[in-house]
Amino acid sequence: MKVVYIINDEFTKNSSVLKKVNNQIAQWYTLGIKTHLYIIGVNKSAAQDFIFNEHLEGFTYFNSPVANLFGGTIYRNLNRQLSVIHLLKTIKRVNPDLIYLREVQYFAFFDKVLRSRPSVIELNSLYLNEIGNLSQYKQNLIKRNQRTIFSSVAGFVCVTNEIAQQIISYQKPWVCCSNGVNMNAFDNQFIDQSAVNIVMICSPGMAWHGVEKLEILSNALPQYQFHLIGPTLDYKATNLIQHGLLGKEDINRLYKSMNIALGCLSLYKKCMNESCSLKVREYLMYGLPMIMGERDVDITGQPFVLEIGNYENNVKDNIEGIHNFIEKYKYVRLSKEQVRQLVSIEVKEKIRTDFFKKIIE
């Protein structure tokens, strides 16, 4: 099977999305799938990482010189629009059996791309729930554009069952396939420190991560050392270390000295209750027990997870329970087999690619 994989995400060089896509492509290769990756104008240094992916059959990075005369939203919209003809030519040349893409905003004639071959779209969020602050005109436009995309694809891969409910009315094939991890990277080595260390990694600008709740935690639990990777807070405390953005190696070193990890604490801000976040899977790769507000499609109910509820005062209302959980699990590391059974990429990508076969039959 040959697949053209289209990406138009705004990710950075060390992002979880980049890691996920690289791991997917590597796993597809072991399953006999040839992948041509087509990237439409994301961060250039991040995109260049794919050039060195030995499992790719081909790679195209589209970044129009004309669009580059502009910046910001104009650049992104114009570059997407100008990619259509080039993308159609690439698909004709590569002649794939299937097109796969992560959820994108519609741009003119993109439905022609999706209809040129059987196509499958991956849905990672309840996007329409996130646009309530926009004008009614913009909301209606986004809804219409989404309908155009969803009507043009042959099937859906939804990372949670909650997300799948939004596409039932299209009466098209779908599968729930959450995010998996590459077990070759598993490392549950623990470097014991004098303090009990609790880590939270986030991407800037993503309010549903709930980074502001670190202020409540660090105040209520001064005996523990909290670490924030990614965005920074105006709030300062002696037991809160704000590392800012870190590279992969620095993050790896830090994880080895952590006792507990924090997942999303404010997913309700996206009007969602269930997730399968990449950062939670990254924590699992280091064997870390964790505290989270949301339900996770793969690990909800596991003893090494404390779920404190998905609402505004979840941290404030559960300080005693959080303290008790930390004391119980602060020196516990998950085993490789525990993690493999729950989220291994081998299992997840077999589900995904079996669905591909169903679509092109």
Describe the structure.
- A seven-stranded parallel β-sheet has the order 3-2-1-4-5-6-7, sandwiched between helices. The protein has a six-stranded parallel β-sheet with strand order 10-9-8-11-13-15, with helices on both faces. A two-stranded parallel sheet has the order 12-14.
- It has two domains: 2-180 and 345-360, Rossmann fold; 183-341, 3-Layer(aba) Sandwich (Rossmann fold).
- It has twelve helices and 15 strands.
- The longest helix is centred in the first third of the chain and has 23 residues, at 72-94.
- Helix 1 (16-30) crosses helix 12.
- The chain has 361 residues and is an alpha/beta fold.
- The model has no long low-confidence stretch (mean pLDDT 90).
- Helix 7 links the parallel strand 8 and strand 9.
Write out key terms for the chains shown.
seven-stranded parallel beta sheet; about 20% strand; alpha/beta; about 350 residues; Rossmann fold; globular; 2 domains; six-stranded parallel beta sheet
Domains (count)? 2
* Average residue-wise pLDDT: 90
Number of helices: 12
CATH superfamily of the largest domain: Glycogen Phosphorylase B
Instruction: Please estimate the helix content.
Output: 25-40%
Overall form: globular
Low-confidence stretches: none
And the CATH topology of the largest domain? Rossmann fold
- Regarding quaternary structure, how should these chains be classified? single chain
Q: Can you describe this structure in just a few lines?
A:
This protein has about 350 residues and is α/β, with parallel strands linked by helices. The chain is built from twelve helices and 15 strands. Helix 6 links the parallel strand 6 and strand 7.
